[in-house]
Amino acid sequence: MRNRASPDSLVPSIVSVTRRFLAGLIALVLLALAGCARESLGTKELRAVTAEVVSAAQRVTARKSEVTIRPEFRTSWIFWRNQLADDIYLSLENASQADGLRQALAQIARRHRLSLAETSSAGVIRVDFTFRGNRTHTIHIVTPLVARSRAPAGSPAANPQLAIILDDLGRDRSASDSLLALPFPLTVSVLPHLPFSTEVAEEVYRRGDEVLLHLPMESQSGDATPENVQLRVGMNRDDVEPILAGMLETVPHAAGVNNHQGSRATADPAIMDALMPALRRRGLFFIDSRTTAATVAYDSAERAGVPAASRKVFLDDTPSREAILAQLDLAARDARRDGSAIAIGHPHPETIAALAEGVPHLEAGGVRLVFASDLVH
After folding, report:
1. What is the crossing angle of helices 269-281 and 297-304, to 10°?
2. Per-residue pLDDT reduced to its tens digit, 199-240
3. What CATH class does 43-142 carry?
4. What is the Cα 263 distance to its own chain's centre?
5. Residue 50: which of 159, 136, 116 has the closest Cα?
6. 324-340 pLDDT, tens per residue?
């Protein structure tokens, strides 16, 4: 007859197996952590590189560079370990300083054994640092255009004023790069929660243009594809507040708001009356894109004491050069008749090309390009 082991005799075996399992698990984790450490910079060294980049920018610009650092956290497969990168936004006083900064960045990369890759457009230079294939830093170098400097507050507006808003930024870099090359004031409206929302807003602001939050709102059923997060009919002030706050987190430097879609929401007094106090508390203005003739948004803003204005012309409903130039002329005629006007377009290649061609002619004819904030009341 086989002897059956007592429960007490099994305890040492269970404990032994458990200890071996835990030891093996700990060894596996330590091995994985060591592998991660070899493939990425430690936090201390990453911060040291960031400090050297900032110091180099201040040295090149005689301490006149405006700097913003936005840490980027990426959770690795080991859930308690984060791999960190820094986005660094630098402004130069003039383009002649770029070469000196490039040389300094190359020296920093060599000193820390980092790879360096540069991508440039007419409006911005981006430099990526990587360590063994992992990005550690992206340095965004922006030179403001003097031509975009706004008139001093209180200066007389003798000429008719035209504000051009370009909507729907944030989905990719190429669209923002093309508009950053335009040498006249633009108001750039950025959609929230998109891959490049924050990056575009930072670069546009440093370039000297004005940033708006392009606030998604509910449209009439079937006339548009809804965004993942949007203001909807039936929401109250408690609903609107956190949604707006979250959107503004992804679109820094927003001076105001205009609606994205919204043919249903902007026609609903309740949701507009829920939104406007939140804008007033933040000191934001509102531009009614007028996606429906039934809109009550401007009236709601006026009641709430929010500075506001309305769009007069859509530039690119027909996306052809000739049609956009004709709409631009229509906007200029409205500005001459009324003293000011707001036109809205999108960063399509045809729109950018038409603006590059048409705006200098308008300016030569006495129309002054301004920001949307100059026209709210």
Report:
1. 40
2. 999 999 999 999 999 999 999 875 556 667 899 999 999 999
3. alpha beta
4. 24
5. 136
6. 999 999 999 999 999 99
